[in-house]
Amino acid sequence: MLNKLIDFFKISEEDRKIIKTNILNENVRRVFYLSVIGIPISLLHVILFISHLKSSVGIEYEWRVSIITIHTSIIILLSIISLTIYFAFIKKRSNIRLAEICIVAVALSLLFGGAAISAVDQKITTAINPFIATTIISSIILLIRPVYSILYYSFSFIIFYLLMNYAQANPDVLISNNVNGLTLSGLGLCLSLIFWKMNLTRIKQHKLIEKQKNELIENLNKLKFYSEELKESDTTKDKLISIIAHDLRSPLASLINVTKLVSEDFDIMSPEEIKKIMISLNKETELTFESLNNLLLWTKTQRKKLVPVLKTTNLNQLVENSILPIRTLCNQKRIALANNIAEDIDICTDSSMMESVIKNLIINSIKFTKEEGNISINATAYEDKIIIAIQDNGIGMEPKVLEKLFKSGSEFTTNGTQNEKGTGLGLQICKEFVELNGGQIWAESKFGIGSTFYFSLPANK
């Protein structure tokens, strides 16, 4: 029992935080409204007592004057308190200490006001109704810590006792009033402790519910995130199966057929026929290799495995390195490929990623450019970025194709001018690699005239 009593008066660290925030806010709000309501009530008392003041004489006159004085003082005090709370706490929340002082001032005004008015009332009545009212109001309205509550109601009774001994001359009435005052103070203390415990428990429960709600929201968001990841993984798996089953199966089948044809008819084939077949075989092999490479890169990007390693690189040399492995594809279609980039432009980028981007964009242009066409690579340097353009005079694209070109989840593949096939991943890889390096990618095209693919990269500073 003793331990429970001690625990009741103990203040935990959580309780301290609640007292400094929630309970302070609640007390300020209640004191403000109590002050706003108390002003017209006291004003009404003043008006009523003044209206009958002229007809009063003797002790009744003194009683009315005392009541008017006390209620006028209460009006002034409550006006100051309500204005202070409004401007210092509710409107700006700039002075918490001042708000705490206002709460104490209201508590003390209730304490002294109830006792003082009850003492003055003893001139004409034995009732202690004002003390009853202020004791009940303070226990219900104010949220006072248990230790302070004991001190408050003890002090309240002492003030009441002293004033009553001064104002009440009849010893029988005095004893009755003092006993009633003690009972009321005890009742007020009990109510105060009950309301304190109820409100503290309510706030704790509300905080716990709020915490659990936030945890549920967080867990739900995590669940959604993991669900999306699973969907993406499932989409990736389906895409891989589709590519392996269809897009890579066809070129590999062609390779098998070509090698079978050469092995069976090698003796009867002319050198020109063998050379033509080998050129075709080389082309198919290079395209298949690039498709497999794109497939590997795309899989890594889907699994968030790639992180760019930024280094200062000469752009012209980077483009030359990108062109070298695929120049034979241009030669096979007799396409003129021109690197027009100035030799003094440096960029800060991941060279490996950018080589993949440039290579994929050039292969895309080769794919949709007819024999003896032209492809040019240009760059424009701005203060904060470099824009690279890969332009061809190929077959171009219709607006509806251009619109969904780089949209995630809309990968598609179209056969080239010589029925070249692809996985549909090249442009998606370009977009992801450019964005990983802090740039953007876009395209312009006119059907039947050609296309230009642009991508930007941050300038080397």
From TrEMBL:
Keyword Phosphoprotein assigned: yes
Domain of life: Bacteria
Gene3D superfamilies given in the database record: 1.10.287.130, Histidine kinase-like ATPase, C-terminal domain
Cross-referenced CDD domains: HisKA (cd00082)
Transmembrane segments: 31-53, 65-89, 101-120, 126-143, 150-167, 179-196
GO MF annotations, alphabetized: phosphorelay sensor kinase activity
Domain Histidine kinase: 243-461
Name of the top EC class for this enzyme: transferase
Catalytic activity field: ATP + protein L-histidine = ADP + protein N-phospho-L-histidine
Database matches in InterPro entries: HATPase_C_sf, HATPase_dom, His_kinase_dom, HisK_dim/P_dom, HisK_dim/P_sf, Sensor_HK_Regulatory, Sig_transdc_His_kin-like_C
Enzyme Commission number(s) of this protein: 2.7.13.3
PROSITE patterns, per the entry: HIS_KIN
Protein name per the record: histidine kinase
